Amino acid sequence: MLADTRATLIVNRGAAELELYFHMAGDQLEPIFGVDPNGLISENDHVTYQGFLEGTFDEADKFIERIEAKISGNPLPLEAMSMMLHPRDFIVPFATPFDATLAIGVCNAETPTEPPHLSELNVYSGFYAYQVDGFGNVEIQLPKTGRDILALEIKEFVNGAYQNTRTVMLNDNQMLELPAISVGFRGWLSALLSAK
To answer: According to the model, what pLDDT value does residue 119 have?
Structure first.
């Protein structure tokens, strides 16, 4: 099954917290999240960075305005950490929660001479929820936007320790489910060792 819409999701679980980090091409914001890109672009349809100097929390919050999320059957109170735009030709590591934290929080590329078009950029965003059952079943209902099939690569971690990678194919308006996990001896040992 082929898909023209692609994104990556890093999930980092803790006993009482959940972190979600997304990476996608800039022109996929609207098809995936239903986000109006006008907040990111200027009148000439290009991105200017001046408006981001005081933070990008407000823009990142827009990513989750149209989604419905639950964990263990309860509302999942996601909050935005940050959002960053990086040029597509500037490779930003996005394999671990640590990579993702840097990707959403550090502008490590020079400001382009000419303002780029949104399609020339990659978007990195992060969200968290505290005081929740971080190991519980997560359901995320993305908005219906008329997009094609979304190929979503999911990288899962527990307390920063890698667990698995899988790809799910989601139809427009299809529920994304992250099944509950049982953290046994191996999971706790892995998490403990990775923290040293």
So the answer is: 86
Tell me what pLDDT residue 109 has.
58
Cα separation, 113 vs 187, in Å, equals: 47
Distance CA 41, CA 51 (A): 10
Q: What angle do CA 152, 155, 3 make, to 5 degrees?
A: 15
Say if CB 97 and CB 19 are below 8 A apart.
Answer: yes
Q: How far apart are CA 37 and CA 59, in angstroms?
A: 10
Length of the chain: 196
Give 64: exposed, middle or buried? Use CB within 10 Å, 0-12, 13-18, 19+.
buried
CA angle 123, 161, 153 (to 5 degrees): 40
Average pLDDT, the chain: 84
Cα 75 to Cα 139: distance, rounded to the nearest angstrom: 10
Contact between residue 140 and residue 30 where contact means Cβ atoms under 8 Å apart: no
Measured CA to CA, the distance from residue 3 to residue 9 in angstroms comes to: 16
Please determine, for residue 177, whether its predicted confidence score (pLDDT) is greater than 80.
yes
CA angle 154, 156, 158 (to 5 degrees): 165
- Strand locations in the chain, DSSP E? 5-14, 17-25, 68-71, 74-75, 79-87, 121-130, 138-141, 150-158, 161-170, 175-178
